[in-house]
Prior knowledge:
32% of the residues lie in helices and 20% in strands. It is of the alpha+beta class and 266 residues long. The longest helix is centred in the last third of the chain and has 20 residues, at 205-224. It starts with a helix and ends in a 14-residue tail after the last helix.
Amino acid sequence: MQLTEQQLNHFRTFGFLVFRQLFSPEELKRFSEEFDRGLDIGLEGGQHNRQARHYALLTYETTPFSCSLHDDPRFADVAEQLLGKPVLGVSVNGNYYVGDTQWHPDNSTFDYEGVKFAMYLEPLDAKSGALRLIPGSHRDPLYHDMAKDPLAKFGVRPEDAPAFVFNSQPGDVLVFNLACWHASFGGSDHRRMGVIVYYEDPQNPVAEDLIKNQLLRNRETALKYGQPGYFSDYWLSIKNPRHQRWVQRLEQMGLLATPAPVGAGG
C-alpha cells in the first residue's frame, strides 16, 4: 500500500493516521476468532475475569492469520514509509482491556522510533473507551510538556483533554508514532484490541541498546502474562525475506538466545 504525500505529512505533523475498513469481513471474522483463541489459552477457566487487563501474543501456530499480518504490506510497507527507514517487526498481540488507561506514550526516548497499529473488534467511541491521542505530542515541546502534567496545571480532567478520538468500527485501523501520548476513558471491562508493532532497524549503538533493552522488557511482560516466550518458533520460521531479515537482526542483537534461569550460575 503506497501512502500519499498528504498522508505522510499528516503523520509527521500529528503523529497518526486512520485507515477505514482495512480488513475485509472474512479477514475480520478470522482475526476475531483467532484473537479469542489466542487470548483465552492459559486463562483460569478459559475465560477473561473482566477484572484486569490480559495480554497475549498472537504469533503462534494457533493464530496463523494474525501472525501473518506482521508481513502484510498493509502494515509492514506502511511502517517503513512512515518511518522512512527499514523496520523490525517486533510484536503482534491482543489485549482485553478493563476500564480507563491514563495518558502515556509507549516510547520514552527520541533516540529510536516505532509505530503501533491498533484495531478494536467492537465499535467504540469517546464514551465507550475509544483510544484518544494528543495530536503532535510525539514531538517537543508538547511531548515533554505532557510529562509535566499540564492537565492538572490548567484544571482539566484527563478525560476532558483536547484530543483526537478514534471512533471506530471493526475493520478500522489506527497507526501512531510510539511517542504519541494516548489514553482511553469510559471503557467496558472486556475491550478487545489487536496491536501490531514495528521499531526502526537500529543503525547506531545507542538506538540498538535502547531497542534491545525495550525488547527484553517486552519479554518480561509476556512472561508476566503467562506467555511461553516472546519470539515463537512459528514466528521465527516464516520464510518471507523481509521477515527473515528481522530474525537475523534480532539474532545479531542477542535477543533470540534463551535467558538463563534466575539464580543459575557457574
